[in-house]
């Protein structure tokens, strides 16, 4: 059983998905069940409706989280952080949806590095540019190494 758990863990990591443990036989997750049902019925709407509903709910929730924090007091650091956190979550959700809708399978198979299409404020919150230490292999790290 440990071999199968390791096999699934490595496979999930390659997909960029979390490993939540092995499921007992017969336990099929709702989206997989809907996809199988659509294949059996021949009607893509059997998987499209729950998929679109799930995407809409996730998008609306994240959009509302950003818009509800938009008018924060610039002097309130905690409110600013909450806004930026909600914005990052929203933009990354949209990027994941976009990737899942078309480009992600190609990138996963070829192992191309992920690049952001946006240069919005979320790029400054990921801890790389403002961390005070250069990331290994970055241009900044190379400059610092040459300066020594």
Description of the structure:
The chain is an all-alpha fold. The chain has a domain at 28-114. Helix content is 62%, strand content 0%. It has 5 helices and no strands. The protein has helices at 2-15, 30-41, 45-67, 77-110, 139-147. α2 (30-41) packs antiparallel against α3 (45-67) and α3 packs antiparallel against α4 (77-110). It starts with a helix and ends with a helix. 1% of the residues are buried. The model is unreliable at 119-131 (pLDDT under 50).
Topology readout:
Layout: H1 2-15, H2 30-41, H3 45-67, H4 77-110, H5 139-147
Arithmetic mean pLDDT: 79
Taking pLDDT < 50 over at least 5 consecutive residues as the criterion, the unreliable ranges are: 119-131
Count all strands and give the number.
0
What is the rounded distance between the termini?
A: 52 Å
**Tally of helical runs:** 5
Short description:
The protein is mainly alpha-helical and 148 residues long. The protein is 62% helix and 0% strand.
Notable characteristics:
single chain; 148 residues; 5 helices; 62% helix
């Amino acid at each position: 059983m440990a071999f199968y758990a390791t096999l699934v863990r490595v496979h999930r990591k390659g997909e960029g998905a979390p490993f939540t443990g092995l499921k007992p036989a017969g336990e099929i997750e709702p989206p997989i069940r809907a996809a199988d049902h659509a294949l059996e019925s021949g009607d893509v709407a059997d998987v499209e409706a729950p998929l679109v509903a799930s995407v809409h709910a996730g998008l609306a929730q994240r959009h509302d989280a950003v818009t509800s924090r938009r008018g924060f007091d610039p002097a309130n650091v905690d409110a600013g952080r909450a806004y930026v956190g909600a914005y990052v979550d929203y933009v990354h959700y949209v990027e994941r949806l976009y990737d899942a809708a078309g480009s992600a399978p190609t990138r996963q198979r070829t192992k191309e590095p992920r690049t952001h299409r946006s240069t919005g404020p979320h790029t400054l919150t990921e801890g790389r540019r403002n961390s005070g230490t250069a990331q290994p292999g970055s241009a900044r790290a190379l400059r610092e190494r040459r300066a020594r």
